[in-house]
User: Fold this.
Amino acid sequence: MKKLLALAAVGEGAMGLLLLVYPPIVVWLLFGVGISGAGIVMSRVAGISLIALGLACWPASEASGGISRALRAMLCYSLLATLYLAYVGFIYGLIGILLWPAVVVHVILTILLAWAALVLRKNVER
Assistant:
């Protein structure tokens, strides 16, 4: 079971990384069509999600537990989503009505998740 889970985690993480780096090739290979503009942006957000899914699904030892693994995956997703959405807003000027509220929500979520990870780590160390 762990080997299958590891294989799935690596596959999803690799696909996420490919979507993050060069989404047009993934979309062309999967669907036979090109993408541009917001399609590239959303494909990269999907790539970030797949990377986080790969982290969440990576088999953990019994000692580490599922909560910390899920917490790390959500922290990774929220941090990368924050950085990427802010980058898209500042660099490309793609700004819809919900872009900056989404960035603010992700900043707050990232801070809360980081704080929870620190608390969990301190409790495990005791």
